[in-house]
UniProtKB/TrEMBL annotation:
The keyword Transferase applies. SUPFAM superfamilies: Actin-like ATPase domain (SSF53067). Pathway: Amino-sugar metabolism; 1,6-anhydro-N-acetylmuramate degradation; Cell wall biogenesis; peptidoglycan recycling. Belongs to the anhydro-N-acetylmuramic acid kinase family. Catalyzes the specific phosphorylation of 1,6-anhydro-N-acetylmuramic acid (anhMurNAc) with the simultaneous cleavage of the 1,6-anhydro ring, generating MurNAc-6-P. Is required for the utilization of anhMurNAc either imported from the medium or derived from its own cell wall murein, and thus plays a role in cell wall recycling. The keyword Kinase applies. ATP binds at G9, T10, S11, V12, D13, A14, I15, D16. Keywords: ATP-binding, Carbohydrate metabolism, Kinase, Nucleotide-binding, Transferase. This is Anhydro-N-acetylmuramic acid kinase. It is an enzyme of class 2 (transferase). It comes from Oerskovia enterophila. Its EC number is 2.7.1.170. PANTHER family: ANHYDRO-N-ACETYLMURAMIC ACID KINASE (PTHR30605). It catalyses: 1,6-anhydro-N-acetyl-beta-muramate + ATP + H2O = N-acetyl-D-muramate 6-phosphate + ADP + H(+).
Length: 438
């Protein structure tokens, strides 16, 4: 089954498209053969309207209605082109995440999430069934609705002790640095995982770059590399209840918006600007990622207790042994260097494409995977701690809504899916070697 995944992140950089051919074997191993990925620029005027509609901007319902239609039309155009560009014209299903405009979180609970991009326009343009609106079912079941990538990370990076695959003992941290950064901590195959948003990824850096230079982001981390971290400003930025809250948790540009940095620095460093400000925001992202993943690793499921209180040893199975990075932040060497400085000795930092997953297409491949799972009646969230899902939901849910509402031809799959194997060869042959494939 070939599924085309479409997504656009909180930075509204572009519409990402990725197609994959899925084959689920009787052994519970799901083989995903990436067919290719690409991206399509938003029309400048529409991108500007989307950015102006993000919090804290007041938006009337007329603008919401127009954006829902215009975004859906643009996703439809991108989907139609991607079917030919990356899948040779052969796609069975389109899975569209849409464009997030608002993620409604109060305290520790998510109440709703709004992604615009009406699926009827996508179905009309692509002439394919479309699964969309992936987050709300999980929120209705008590989950955060984000991050949803935990299911991919758990299946892909889970370590099988019976079939050594080169994965180190202990935990792998799958880290995606988009506008918001998120982490999934993965141990053995089918073991519970923990996934959460750590806080700002690129969003505060990007906002500052646009204000300072007019550039959309800090290309290659160049400006941040020339600045000096302001420790007083960093402490003020870190003084936010979100960073101390327990996982699973989710956030977005509702919290880390254009007013966040001026508000936090007003009393301590109101005049901080230029390269020093960019360096400080880069440090904020690195610190919050590192501290978050290390603290959650030790606290998860009671495993944070020392193995021998007299010696102060910790359980090696709860140590983070590698961090696998994807997303736009993976292109920022200054950010990665600062993150590496905070990781414990012996923890490997590598990019997702070193394991066969293109760093710029992981989100699009995620939604292709979620579309496949939903089409077969399989839950789209991974198992979490304490009889919950990785998102905090009370139960497993099949995610998304189908457009048009006609029965899918693919039968429901009732057995467990244990692993996800990336392959660029015919199914059943050798696994995909390291490297990227466009």
């Amino acid at each position: 089954m070939i599924v085309l995944g479409l997504s656009s992140g909180t930075s509204v950089d572009a519409i990402d498209a990725a197609a994959a051919d899925f084959h689920l074997g009787p052994d519970g191993v799901l083989r995903m053969r990436p067919l290719g990925h690409t991206e399509y620029e938003w029309p400048a005027a529409l991108r500007e309207r989307i950015l102006k509609a993000l919090p804290p901007a007041p938006v009337d319902m007329g603008e919401v209605t127009q954006l829902d239609t215009l975004i859906g039309q643009e996703f439809g155009r991108a989907g139609r082109q991607a079917i030919d560009d990356v899948a040779g014209g052969d796609v069975d299903l389109v899975a569209s995440h849409g464009q997030t405009l608002y993620h409604w979180v109060v305290g520790a609970r998510a109440h709703g999430s709004l992604q615009l991009g009406n699926a009827a326009w996508i179905a009309e343009r692509t002439r394919r069934p479309v699964i969309s609106d992936f987050r709300v079912a999980d929120i209705a079941a008590g989950g955060q609705g984000a991050p949803l990538v935990s299911v991919l990370d758990a299946l892909w990076l889970g370590r099988d002790p019976q079939s050594p695959d080169g994965a180190p003992a202990g935990l792998s941290a799958a880290l995606n640095i988009g506008g918001i950064a998120n982490v999934t901590l993965v141990g053995e195959v089918e073991a519970p995982v923990t996934g959460w948003d750590t806080g700002p990824g690129n969003c505060l850096i990007d906002l500052t770059m646009r204000q300072l230079t007019g550039e959309p982001y800090d290309r290659d981390g160049a400006l941040g590399a020339t600045g000096t971290v302001d420790q007083a400003a960093l402490r003020a930025l870190l003084d936010d209840p979100y960073f101390a809250a327990k996982a699973p948790k989710s956030t977005g540009r509702e919290l880390f918006d254009a007013t966040y940095v001026p508000r936090k620095l007003a009393a301590v460093r109101p005049d901080l600007t230029g390269a020093d400000l960019v360096a400080t925001l880069t440090e904020l992202t690195a610190v919050t990622i590192a501290e978050g993943l290390l603290s959650v690793a030790q606290a998860a499921a009671g495993h944070g207790a020392p193995r021998d209180p007299a010696l102060g040893e910790t359980d090696p199975q709860r140590e983070v042994r590698r961090v696998v990075v994807s997303g736009g932040g993976a292109h920022n060497p200054t950010l990665l260097a600062r993150l590496r400085a905070y990781l414990p000795e012996g923890c490997e930092l590598l990019t997702a494409d070193q394991l066969g997953m293109p760093i710029d297409a992981k989100e699009a491949y995620l939604f292709a995977l979620l579309g496949f799972l939903s089409a077969h009646g399989v839950a789209g969230t991974a198992k979490g701690e304490q009889r919950r899902r990785s998102t905090g939901a009370r139960r497993a849910t099949v995610l998304g809504s189908l457009t048009p509402p006609t029965p899918l031809i693919w039968p429901a799959f009732t057995g467990p899916i244990r692993r996800l194997v990336l392959a660029n060869t015919p199914f059943g042959l050798a696994p995909m070697p390291k490297g990227t494939h466009r």
